[in-house]
């Protein structure tokens, strides 16, 4: 049996920040942590990178207010890639509305300017790990492994160990996440039940049989549930769950 080749590389971070001093400080800190940084100062160039399948990232750090638009516009493009990554929002403001919108889009976390090196390293470590989990879940390889950069995983583990303590928030099961989302987004009981089964890997016909409803009814329930969450497909929903893990 041929041994699987492991791809090793530095974890890559897409940094989108229009204030040069802030961007330079964050980039310097990330490089000291062992990351490769690709910087953009505007939405246009960042979007081009996000849409380039050859440009792989392990996490994106995105400012909200950019000269040519809102940084949240990048979230969907980044998480819908063949090699998806999670997004951290960088901001200097305390605005409830954009925070709610960011959370609904599946943003993994928030970094308030000025961000400390310790806070940055903690958030990036967790984001790298969640990107890895998302790729393994969405693109399984033979034996349950994936061609994910092992160096990225090692850096994440090292950063977490360096924080000097365990994560304070317990990891929720997929079903527990769906129930929390049900309260947050106003899902009906039947929509929640259908999405719980999706989160457990059940296909539509199996869900129909388990719930005692027709296949078309399941499709209606899922479409309505996806719509309330702001996702477009089953894969987007799974990505959404992984991205929200630990932030709820």
Index terms:
two-stranded antiparallel ribbon; disordered N terminus; alpha/beta; 11 helices; 248 residues; five-stranded parallel sheet
E-strand count: 7
- In the sheet with the most strands, the strands line up as 2-1-3-6-7
**Kindly, what is the distance between the CA atoms of the first and last residues, rounded to a whole number of angstroms?**
43 Å
Classify the helix fraction into a percent range: 40-55%
Structural class: alpha/beta
Enumerate the spans where pLDDT stays under 50 for 5 or more consecutive residues.
1-8, 140-170
Q: How much strand?
A: 5-15%
The total count of helices amounts to: 11
Shape: elongated
N to C succession of SSEs: EHEHEEEHEHEHHHHHHH
What does this structure look like?
The longest helix has 22 residues, at 117-138. The chain is 52% helix and 12% strand. It contains eleven helices and seven strands. The strands form two sheets. It has a five-stranded parallel β-sheet. It has a two-stranded antiparallel sheet with strand order 4-5.
Task: Explain the layout of strands and helices.
Blueprint: E1 12-16, H1 20-32, E2 36-40, H2 43-50, E3 59-63, E4 65-66, E5 69-70, H3 73-79, E6 86-91, H4 96-105, E7 109-112, H5 117-138, H6 150-162, H7 174-185, H8 189-199, H9 204-211, H10 215-229, H11 234-244
Parallel strand pairs: 1-2, 1-3, 3-6, 6-7
Antiparallel strand pairs: 4-5
């Amino acid at each position: 049996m041929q041994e699987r080749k492991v791809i090793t590389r530095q974890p890559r971070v897409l940094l989108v920040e229009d204030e040069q001093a802030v961007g330079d400080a964050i980039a310097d800190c990330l490089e000291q942590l062992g990351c490769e940084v690709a910087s953009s100062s505007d939405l246009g160039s960042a979007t081009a990178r996000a849409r380039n399948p050859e440009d792989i990232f392990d996490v994106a750090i995105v400012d909200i207010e950019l000269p040519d638009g809102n940084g949240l516009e990048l979230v969907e493009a980044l998480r819908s890639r063949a090699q998806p990554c999670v997004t951290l929002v960088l901001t200097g403001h305390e605005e409830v509305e954009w925070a709610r919108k960011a959370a609904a889009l599946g943003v993994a976390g928030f970094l308030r300017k000025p961000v400390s090196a310790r806070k940055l390293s903690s958030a990036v470590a967790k984001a790298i790990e969640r990107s890895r989990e998302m790729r393994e879940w969405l693109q399984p390889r033979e034996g349950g492994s994936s061609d994910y950069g092992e160096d990225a995983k090692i850096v994440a583990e090292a950063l977490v160990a360096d924080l000097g303590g365990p994560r304070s928030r317990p990891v929720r099961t997929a079903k527990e996440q769906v129930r929390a989302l049900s309260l947050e987004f106003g899902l009906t009981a039947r929509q929640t039940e259908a999405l719980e089964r999706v989160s457990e890997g059940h296909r539509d016909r199996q869900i129909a049989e388990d719930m005692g409803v027709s296949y078309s009814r399941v499709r209606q329930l899922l479409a309505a549930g996806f719509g309330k969450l702001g996702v477009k497909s089953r894969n987007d929903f799974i990505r959404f769950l992984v991205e929200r893990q630990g932030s709820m």
